[in-house]
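*** Query protein ***
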Amino acid sequence: MTSPTRPLAVVTGASSGIGLELAREFARHDYDLLIAAEDAGIERAADELRALGAGVETARVDLATREGVDALVGRLRADGRPIEAIAINAGIGVGGPFVETDLEAELRLVALNVTGVVQLSKHIVRDMLSAGRGRILYTSSIAGDMPAPYLAVYGASKAFDLSFAEALRHEMKDTGVTITVLQPGPTDTDFFRRADMEDTKVATGKKDDPADVARQGFEALMAGKDHVVTGSFKNRVQDALAQVLPEPAKAAMHGKQAEPGSGKTGAKKK
């Protein structure tokens, strides 16, 4: 059970990967948690977090649907406790050439990565503004800084998240509500398998530890920073290049990493 004497944090997409590691950071820093995901792994994650001493409640909801977001908000309102921090982290990818990828999968991506983010934010931002305090962490990606061939819809969704969060940060200045954007690079999670990208250069190359990514994101959130590019030095260089290179050059840089078959030795795409 959660305790009213401890601050409450919410983490979406918390059953695995960066989301679970973010939840661990909150638990280690004496937060109670409400963690959300659509899969059964959320209960296993809750048990792991309780072992760290946190009070943890779960919400098994599909945040790609309006009903799922409403159900999560309903849980929060029923609890009655102010939310001190939220990591809006749930997201999915769909890899491959746009002419070949599944439309329904990409529309679901947009529903989760974009529509669900806006819907949840509308409630959370208003509640935090009324309370005069709160911290929001949005998980974007370094892919949000550039065109993302072979991840076209995902990259666009993360560019949306980045722009949306930075706009809200300006609107919320001097209100007590801070907004931070987490921009990881390739991270050792289930993302590439789920996005059908296991044969790509980016998937077969060196990836960052999700625990390190989450720690850097948590520290940036607590410091009130506007954004943090996490992980390796390579990620920071790529992010810096994305600020100055022309769009075709950025698209080519990403395409070499995400092109199907690029991760196989000597392989060339047909």
Q: What stands out?
A: Residues 8-195+208-232 form a domain with the Rossmann fold fold (CATH 3.40.50.720). The chain has one domain: 8-195+208-232. The CA atoms of residues 187 and 208 lie 4 Å apart. The mean pLDDT is 94.
